[in-house]
Amino acid sequence: MHNIALADESLQAYNDLKIHQTYRYVIFFVDRRNNLIMVDQALRRDQENPQLTPEQQWNNFLGVLEPKYNAGHCCYAVYYCQFEFFGEPRFKHLLIEWLPSTADPKSQMLTTSNFDMVKKRFLGISHYVPSASTLSDLAWDRVYQMMVRP
């Protein structure tokens, strides 16, 4: 199995999301040539429509994730989720392991085998979605229910 490391820019992007709330999400991919987990795409919070509800923000994220990664590419994503629970604002960080069934087995294995390392390096993640392979695994209702659990 490959020894994969987290690129410095990936850790910096995560810290910018976590500490400074700079991003709504950051998507990471495994660069097999360099054995690094790299930033692939990110959405700055100051570039999104402030009128969107949390569910609409989430669905926009899924709209980015689906066509790009349902084509058979595995990835990790960290999502800064803002929502209300009984009228109180809540903020959670969600780490997703995206393993579409169309991905080749080697990519799935490489992504899965490094998920624990990613979890350890991204300190402060409160919720995880391991092995998501379809958009129904990431439906807003499921994610919301996971976020509001103590």
Distance between the termini: 36 Å
Round the mean pLDDT to the nearest integer and report it.
92
CATH H-level superfamily: Severin
Low-confidence stretches: none
- Coarse morphology: globular
Could you say how many structural domains there are in total? 1
User: What is the C-level CATH assignment?
Assistant: Alpha Beta
The CATH topology is Severin
Task: Please summarize what this structure is.
The chain is α/β, with parallel strands linked by helices and 150 residues long. It has one domain (5-148): Severin, CATH 3.40.20.10.
Q: Which key terms come to mind for this protein?
A:
Severin, single chain, six-stranded mixed sheet, 6 strands, 150 residues
Give structural notes.
The N and C termini lie far apart (36 Å). The model has no long low-confidence stretch (mean pLDDT 92). The protein has helices spanning 8-20, 54-69, 105-113, 115-121, 140-148; strands spanning 5-6, 23-31, 36-44, 75-85, 88-98, 127-132. By secondary structure, the protein is an alpha/beta fold. 27% of the residues are buried. The protein has a single domain (5-148), classed as Severin (3-Layer(aba) Sandwich). A six-stranded mixed sheet has the order 1-3-2-4-5-6, with helices on both faces. The protein is globular.
